[in-house]
Amino acid sequence: MKAVQIVNPHEMRVVDIDKPVLGVGEVMVKIEYVGFCGSDLNTFLGRNPMVNLPIIPGHEVGAVIEKIGEGVPEGFTKGMNVTLNPYTNCGKCASCRNGRVNACEHNETLGVQRNGVMCQYAVLPWQKIIPAEGISSRTCALIEPMSVGFHAVSRAQVIDNEFVMVVGCGMVGLGAVIRASQRGASVIAVDIDDEKLALAKRIGAAYTVNSMTENVHERIQSITGGFGVDVVIEAVGSPATYVMAVEEVSFTGRVTYIGYSKTEVSFQTKLFVQKELDIRGSRNALPADFRAVINYLKAGNCPVDELISNETGPDGAFDAMKEWASNPGKVFRILVKF
Length: 338
Fold this sequence. Notes:
The protein is an alpha/beta fold.
């Protein structure tokens, strides 16, 4: 069967691999759409230290159940639209013991620490198959990245009557905008691209700030009456936005980081103490986050077509990735269709 493989930095090809064999307790799915994510871009550019090349990318999936193995419980049927939970958990580490399996110390995400599913068929344990009836397989490919943003909002414990600043309006950041606005917060979206900010406003942001053309601090102070924001969710992963989060959050506020900087970050650590901040990380997503995204998408209010920047087949994946690498700020999601 066909698969897309990143061979070396800046080198991608279509390869033939064996079709997987269905086992006990497993489900075979026919892959219909797979999204390229930021980790795939970093792998392509040679900036992902967690990847051993060559690797098949892909963990943002829209698929259809093809076959069901023995020992799979009821509730899964052939032809059902599904997405996949792409993470593993060992069940023994501190995170797993505490019920936070999304942050398993030994997690292996599809397409990162192990081969992904940018191919025609995949076999996974039934526990990793997430039914998404009522949602097209194309839209299903957006569920995983959006769920990462939803999870960050849960980590930040966002409630109504709060100002929440979301820094970065890519797919994950937009997920955070949606979820925070669902919870009744007043969301301030920050990005350097006016088109992304306009979309953020359409899906729930009350305010937008272009950090390239506006003074972020002055705008935040004006919007919040001089208090600063109650919560910052950082979805970029740059030193500048890491520092911005701590500076713009209010006294006794909460900062949740999704992105991680590839270089060291210098903080005025006195702000941690003076403001008595809660600073948290947010990694991957939990099953409840996937379900919340599915419920949101079923409502039909998501501008799905605006979130899909490009759609191509396996043979066009290399060109699509090169185009993204040349202008990363203008892409939400690239989908590869099988």
